[in-house]
Amino acid sequence: MHGALSVAWEALRKEMKGLILPRENAREAAMTKNLSVFPVTSLRETVDFLNNQKEIAPFEVDLNEVFEVSKHYQVDFSDVKGQEHVKRALEVAAAGGHNILMIGPPGSGKTMLAKRFPTILPMLTLKEALETTKIHSVAGLLAGNQSLVATRPFRSPHHTISDAGLIGGGKYPRPGEVSLAHHGVLFLDELPEFKKNVLEVMRQPMEDGKVTIARAMLSITYPANFMLAAAMNPCPCGYYTDPNRQCSCTSQQIQKYLARISGPLLDRIDIQIEVPAVRYRDLAATSSGEKSDVIRERVQKAREIQLKRFKNNERIFCNADMQAKNIRKYCKVNEGGEELLKNAITKLGLSARAYDRILKVSRTIADLAGEENILPEHISEAIQYRSLDRQLWL
Ligand SMILES: Nc1ncnc2c1ncn2[C@@H]1O[C@H](COP(=O)(O)OP(=O)(O)OP(=O)(O)O)[C@@H](O)[C@H]1O
Ligand SMILES: [Mg+2]
Ligand SMILES: [Zn+2]
Q1: CA-to-CA distance for 256 and 122, rounded, in angstroms?
Q2: Which residue minimizes the CA distance to atom 26 of ligand 1?
Q3: Which among 34, 159, 222, 314 is most buried, taking Cβ atoms within 10 Å?
């Protein structure tokens, strides 16, 4: 049976006191607490129970215990050698809730890095975990002995996915990848390979944090608040930026390839970072980098600053959520900073659109540094995270 947790929540909402469920679904439903879930194995047992001829103890789950054992990840940031500046960009993205695009040749570690992105995001709260669990429960993705999704989900749909697969659909609308990634990371590998209409339908959930699937008979809304991580090669053959390999693409082919991802989606991605081919020296090194836990602590601190900043604003939780008027208010820069920005726009040929993005990301970098004011050094780092803008002007 799928969706035991949702059934349980509905029962709670209707102020029911108990629920009788097949034993294998009891654990999932018991997560709701405040509801007695009676596990049964047969109809006979159910009848006996209802006739008071058999005692069945309600299923007990220790939430804290479940949370404690399952919140650990299989992978860690320290597995990735070198690539310090990419790790830093991911830390900034995690700290401010910024979507991120990684651009690099095959084998440079983009997928490896993206998989580890959830491990540096702030710890899931119980409320978030239950929300995510509910969606996975509806989709029938919970393993029998799993009662709670206690780690942030990482979803990486293949680029051949349909729009229904991505945002949800079907006769009885199932949640799509954007909802399965709720409170976690949606990773789109080889971004330019996705169909245009598929990328287009992501706009609504990215704006609203939820998605409504309209069908003739019914329409249903699922939460879809995720962080987007995307990856792509710099050109069709993949080796344009690789110093050790020869790129076989014409500049026209490259332009065409990059143009596929322009527009509204790219507009929602604050950070674009180049991932160079891994240097042998880094791969051979035995010393490992920082552990995810250490990075996550810094991320968490920066998030706390943001929660305070936006405490009176219902729709903003992190710097990435800021709209133009919030940016004017919270991202003031001094004269030195203005000068830098002006130079970036005129000399590097950055678009005016990039301007607001740079300010938001600078705010996050300042927050990570515990600085109230955005300093020129924060701005110059943020400018580094506009690889694609610059690339287009080469
Ligand atoms: N920085 C690194 N440290 C340790 N191992 C690495 C690193 N970069 C790459 N690798 C190794 O190389 C493999 C390939 O990396 P990965 O699949 O992440 O590359 P990619 O950039 O996603 O490539 P593609 O463009 O082909 O998808 C990894 O599974 C890993 O074993
Ligand atoms: Mg890859
Ligand atoms: Zn090429």
Answers
A1: 38
A2: 106
A3: 222
